[in-house]
Amino acid sequence: MKLLSHYRSAANRHFSNWHEYDINENMIYSHRSTQYNRETYPVGLHFHDYYELLIVEGGDVRYICESASYLPRYGDVILIPPGKLHMSMINAESTTYSRCVFYLYDNAFDAIGCSSLLQFLHRHESSGQFFTSLKPRRMEELTALLARLDTALEKEQPEDHALALGLILQIFYLLNKPADESTHHEEYFPQNVLDIQHYLDTHFAEVSTVAEVAEHFFYSREYVSRLFKKYLNTTVANYVLQRRIVYSQRLIETDMPLLDVCYQAGFGSTSSFIRAFQSVTGMTPSKYRHAHHERLKPSGG
C-alpha cells in the first residue's frame, strides 16, 4: 500500500504465527494468532488513513474506538474507519489473540470494477457502529473462505494469487450483506472521561496544556493525567497531538496551503508541525500530500 510505509515499519515485529500479504497497492491482508501477556501486548492509541477490518477468531482483549468499548468474541467484526482513534488492550494476564485483518482504502476494488463490494464500509462509518456480531452460519461461511485464502496466499504462485483475489471478493460479498446484529457498547468509560474526551475532540486546536483542561473541569492536573493513563493508556498531550494530526491529514488532502494547515490544526510553527506530523505518520506533510494524490491516480496513470 502506498501510504503504509510507517505502518509497515512499526508493525515489523518478530511474532510467530503472523502472516501478512500485499493483495494490491490498496489492500493488505494479515492473519495473526499471537500469545500475549500484559508485558508483551502492544498497547497504544493510534489512527490510520485507511480502513482496518478485523474478523475476531479468539482472545481475551478489549477494543476501544473513540469513546466506544467492546469485548470482542468469536465471530465479531470490527471496522475502524480512517482517522478514528483506537486501541486494543489485553483483558487477562495472558491470552492467545487470533484475528484476520484487512487494511484497505475504499478504492481497493476500483481497478476490477467491484467498488460496490465496499459499500458497507461507508454504511458503518456513517452509523458510527464499529462492532458487529456475525451469526454462526455466516461466520462458518466466512471462516471457510478465510482458510482457503490463507492456503492460496501461502503458495505464492501467480495462479494462486488470482484464486486469492477471487476468495477476497467472496469474503467482501459476504461482509457487504446487511449486518446480522449490532453489538452493544460496553460501559467502560466513566462520564468524566467521556466529557474530557468530548472537550478535547472539539478544542484540540486551542488546548495546549493539561492544566487548561483540568481548570476547565475544576480538576487537578494529576487527576486528569491519571484518568487518561488508566482508561486510554496515553497522555492528554498525546491525545491532542493525534487529534491535530488526523485533522491536518484531512486538510492536506485538499489544496489548502500547508502553512494554513499548520495553524488551523493548532500548531505554533511550521517546524513543530512538520516534526510532529512526521513522528506520527512517518512522512512529512508535503510527502503525505504527494503520496495521497499518487494513490488516487487510476492504475497505470
Which properties best describe this structure?
301 residues, 10 strands, 11 helices, three-stranded antiparallel β-sheet, globular, alpha+beta, seven-stranded antiparallel β-sheet
List the helices and strands and how they pair.
Elements: H1 5-10, E1 18-24, E2 27-37, E3 51-58, E4 61-65, E5 68-70, E6 76-80, E7 86-90, E8 94-104, H2 119-127, E9 131-133, H3 136-155, H4 158-175, E10 181-182, H5 191-203, H6 210-217, H7 221-232, H8 236-252, H9 258-264, H10 270-281, H11 285-296
Antiparallel strand pairs: 1-2, 2-8, 3-6, 3-8, 4-5, 4-7, 6-9, 9-10
Helix pairs in contact: 3-4, 6-7
Architecture overview:
The chain is an alpha+beta fold. Helix content is 45%, strand content 20%. It contains eleven helices and ten strands. A seven-stranded antiparallel beta sheet has the order 1-2-8-3-6-9-10. A hairpin with a 2-residue loop joins strand 4 and strand 5. The longest helix is centred in the middle third of the chain and has 20 residues. It is globular, with a radius of gyration of 20 Å. The protein starts with a helix and ends in a 5-residue tail after the last helix. 29% of the residues are buried.
How is the main sheet built?
7 strands, antiparallel
Task: Please provide the count of β strands.
Answer: 10
State the helical fraction: 40-55%
Task: Encode the helix/strand succession as letters.
Answer: HEEEEEEEEHEHHEHHHHHHH
Q: Distance N terminus to C terminus? A: 16 Å
Query: In terms of structural class, how would the helical and strand content be classed?
Result: alpha+beta
- Low-pLDDT runs: 8-12
What proportion of the residues form beta strands (DSSP E)?
15-25%
Rg, please? 20 Å
Report the total helices.
Answer: 11
Strand order in the sheet with the most strands: 1-2-8-3-6-9-10
Average of the residue pLDDT scores = 88
**Backbone shape:** globular
